[in-house]
Write a structure and sequence with these properties.
With 184 residues, the protein is an alpha/beta fold. Strands 2-1-3-4-5 form a 5-stranded parallel beta sheet, with helices on both faces. It has helices at residues 8-20, 31-40, 57-66, 82-90, 103-132, 136-149, 154-166, 170-182, and strands at residues 2-4, 26-28, 46-49, 73-77, 93-98. Helix 3 (57-66) links the parallel strand 3 (46-49) and strand 4 (73-77).
């Protein structure tokens, strides 16, 4: 995980809390450093402050998305606004954590994200069972719903390609394979 915040105490608090939960953590103290770390490494999750020196958190998020980096980002800020929340959500942030926050609030966000990931895995397993049973129409209905919630999931695109192949529509299957490669 990566924590990008210009406030030393926030970096320390997040690092300690995340390490106690069993995560390895790196930190960055400004937007440019955070951007370079994100571009140069593979992180499972990034905590990103909005107000940062050198490069704002919003701009960091905009730039990594423009480069096709799908790393999940949790926005942290002491200055929450509706405009920032909407902009960051549109740029693909997965949560918004308002400062000051407690270790319990941080755990709650991490638990929520873990539950959502488990739900996605369970849904994918059910869809794979439908595909294995050649129940392509049912799989297609489920996949359309999942794709609307997770449009950047390469697994869903692969499953859609498999579904369309099973339905005898190789043109659509090829389109979904190509779309999935865009998110790799």
């Amino acid at each position: 995980m990566l924590v990008v915040d210009d406030t030393k105490n926030i970096r320390l608090l997040l690092t300690k809390c995340l390490e106690l939960e069993g995560y390895e953590v790196e930190t960055a103290s400004n937007g440019q450093e955070g951007y370079e770390k994100i571009c140069g490494g593979a992180y499972h999750l990034v905590f990103l402050d909005i107000k940062l020196p050198e490069l704002s958190g919003t701009e960091v998020l905009r730039r990594i998305r423009a480069r096709g980096i799908p790393t999940p980002v949790i926005i942290i800020t002491a200055y929450p606004t509706v405009k920032n929340a909407i902009e960051c959500t549109q740029l693909g942030s997965i949560a918004y954590l308002q400062k000051p926050f407690t270790a319990d609030r941080l755990r709650a966000v991490l638990n929520q994200l873990a539950a959502e990931a488990q739900e996605r895995r369970a849904g994918s397993e059910e869809i794979q069972q439908l595909l294995d049973a050649h129940r392509y129409r049912e799989a297609l209905d489920r996949l359309k719903g999942e794709l609307s919630r997770h449009p950047d999931s390469t697994l869903l695109y692969r499953m859609l390609a498999e579904t369309y192949e099973g339905l005898g529509d190789s043109t659509s299957a090829d389109q979904f394979r190509k779309a999935g490669r865009a998110f790799e």
